[in-house]
Amino acid sequence: MASLTNGLFPILKGLLFAFIGFLVGSIIAIAITSVTNFPLTEPLITLGYLFALIGWLMGVGMWKVWGKEWFGLNSVPHDNSGGWKRYFRFCTDHKVVGIQYLVILLVVFFLAGALSMLMRLELTDGKQNLFNLTDYNTLMSLHGIMMIAVVVAIFMGGFANYVVPLMIGARDVAFPRVNALSFWVVPPVAVLLLLTPLFGGFDTGWTAYPPLASKNATGGLLFVLAFLTFGVSSILGGLNFLATIIKLRAPGMTWGRVPIFVWGVLGASVIALIATQWVAFALLMIILERTAGMRFFSPVDGVGGNALLFEHVFWFYSHPAVYIMALPGFGFILESISTFSKKPVFAYSWVVKAIFGIVFLGFIVWAHHMFTSGMQLWLHAPFMFLTELISIPTGIIFLAGLTTMWKGKISLKTPFLFSTAVLFNFTIGGLTGIYLADVATDLYLQDTYFVVAHFHYTMVGGVVFAFFGAFYYWFPKITGKMYNEGLGKLHALLLLITFNLTFMTMFWPGLQGMNRRVAVYPDTFSDINGWVTIFAILLGLSFLPFILNIIISLWKGTKAPNNPWGGKTLEWETTSPPSIENFDVIPTVQSSPYIYDDESVKHAIFNKNKA
Amino acid sequence: MLNKDFLITLFLWIIFTLIGEIGLFSVQDHIFPIQGSEEAIFIDDAFFLLTVLSVPIFTLVCVMLGYSFMNFRASKNKIASQSADKQSVKQILYWKWGWLIVSTVLCLSVLVHPGFTGINELFAHEDKTPDLTVSVTGQQWAWSYQYIDTDNLDDSVTIRGSKETVVLPNNSLIRFHITAPENDVLHSFWIPAFRTKIDVIPGMYTALNINTNRIGNYDEDVNYRVQCAELCGMGHSMMSNKVSVVSKEEFEKWLSQKKK
């Protein structure tokens, strides 16, 4: 018991400091609003939250290992040992941070999945059944933003953190304390989002378009604060991986020898660092609209701006953001297809170019979300042109996936099944994307269920499938235990079938004229939606083997060898799980990580004498 | 390059593509909702063309995945494996460049049609004088419509609220002038039977041009409805009106009745 309270002490301290911070922020807010005569509630929540966030971070341990230095005091040196207690304090070990991310995001994933089940129950037929209209909007918006958070960070926060330093032969990331900071702002995001229903919910969807986002219930403010906080985490993460991958590669790891997953993370980091700042500004402007009465996006009384401005700035982040989600996933599937086919990644250098082609093009296609927005007509053609160009580099990545396994020695392990499922699903997601990039068809399909089906094919069919593939792939490395192969394959098969049934069916109501984000719809769409609901519930149930598998494997899984898959990248060269310092000796890289046909060539050697 | 695996895959790809295309063409008349405007016919044709082009790409991925799963498993492929890594440099080059060129050509051709041709076609009526102009105002959570009488603005007919039916003349170019009050939020004006939609922006005007081409109404098909298509808060899903397209004569009769 004493050990338990001892272990949770940083959390309790964080909560206490957050409370004190909230009081401080409230007092400042009261002082300001007493001068400006502006309504108190929202400034109080905003400033209270800001100081509570600082208090929380300091309480969980940032003050001890970092904050003291800012005031000329001596900080405590990093201590990354200590069993389970490490996970409940400001710990700078990249492996701890990775696991912290994975666990919290899996929890959020299952919560948001449960919300989607409630949505589907409401949508079983066209009438209003379980929820009133406002509650449905809140439900839908929460599902959206929580899942967005999961797919943005599950690779970048979870696996990139755990695996990238191992893959490049480093002892940690470049800025370990920034890394811990980027994780510890995430729990407040989850708390804020889960509190929104108590403050009237929010009914804007995750896109938060003003003027609605500036004038809805206070839940909307909580959502914007949460999104902004999450953006900060994403920016810090992107910065950290850029520095890590550029500066901390092991000796001999030239750019041509960097594993393809690391390239995917590098591409995503560029986007996370540059693009996220834009959405942060846009959200900050909404907060100022709400708390200080400024008018950036709504033209009330002839003063103020234009709602289209927000859409431009928002999509300038949110389109590239889908590549923050997708690129590490693409990197992973090529990595695992190579490992399980025992063949090098096909056209490696082209894939790298394709990744950066996507990064570049991703920044200049945002207005394809706005063909029906009322923006200037002459913008249609160039944005359609640029958007459809993305199909070319994406095609190269597909070519690499398909040809890497061609004539390989394939072993059908669970991660391989998930990776090939990504190729199948993302083909459908990509092809249906063309209908939305084409102006003519988009004018019809925009804001219908066709769009909903399309982005679930890319986000779930692409990123979530890749995530589960990665989960099984690195599970032995992270936990030191093998998972149950039979249950894993069952999970892959059930998920593939139920996912495709659900979202393939969903294209149909979209094409037939059913718009999205509605709780109530014309009765003609009831039958097909009834089917979607049944399939969606089966999709939810398909996660049971996964949960069972984790429990069984952690409880009595066999001990994992260092290299269960015969992979060549560096994370397989160390123990499972790796020691605190990752490697006894820093490896010296000698060749590409994908040479399978010549046993005499080693990717890296560990020269103990040098150390 | 012309080995057994390649030829079988090629054969399977052609077979599955043919099956897919034949299936697609046989359901061509059943996949689209009612086509209430010239624009609808163009957009549906574009949709169909894109689907026809998607089929071979989809079947290629499926056939390559399926064939690899069946034939390149480690347990079945012990002998062939040694040569796997030693694909000739030339062969890899063919594949890479072939794929790049084909995907680029495909991409550019759909850009021309239905891409640029679609933009030209669907926005061609911006400068023409419409047969009928309707001023539409979106508000949380109802539409109001003002049928503009170009001779005498005071004679314009206004209808309001979700109980009203929006009556429109057949075989006419109809221009909707759309806005929302400055203190309102975004909406989107959409009649699914006509396909195209345009957002409603507080304090700004947007326009939508429709060429009606058939008589029809909500009771015949629910896509004869005005539907808000941009989330606008609580009543978003209810922000709807029935639409009825009638002959020009009937429309004039209806309008003059409303004027009284």
3D structure, described in words:
The complex is a heterodimer of chains A (611) and B (260). Chain A folds into two domains: 9-70 and 85-90, no CATH class; 92-582, Cytochrome C Oxidase, Chain A (Up-down Bundle). The longest helix of chain A is centred in the first third of the chain and has 35 residues, at 2-36. Chain A has 611 residues and is mainly alpha-helical. The mean pLDDT of chain A is 93. Chain A is globular. A two-stranded antiparallel ribbon of chain A has the order 1-2. The relative contact order of chain A is 0.09. Helices cover 66% and strands 1% of the residues of chain A. Chain B is α+β, with helices and mostly antiparallel strands and 260 residues long. Chain B folds into two domains: 4-76 and 86-122, no CATH class; 132-259, Immunoglobulin-like, CATH 2.60.40. Chain B is 41% helix and 22% strand. Chain B contains five helices and eleven strands; from the N terminus they run ααααβββββββββββα. Chain B has helices at residues 4-26, 38-71, 81-84, 89-122, 248-259, and strands spanning 132-139, 142-147, 157-160, 165-169, 173-179, 187-190, 197-200, 206-211, 216-217, 225-228, 240-246. In chain B, strands 4, 6, 7, 9, 10 and 11 form a six-stranded mixed sheet that branches. Chain B has a five-stranded mixed sheet with strand order 3-2-1-5-8. The longest helix of chain B is centred in the N-terminal third of the chain and has 34 residues, at 38-71. Chain B starts with a helix and ends with a helix. Mean pLDDT of chain B is 90; it is low at 79-85. At the A-B interface, helix 4, helix 10, helix 12, helix 13 and helix 14 of A face helix 2, helix 3, helix 4, strand 7 and strand 10 of B.
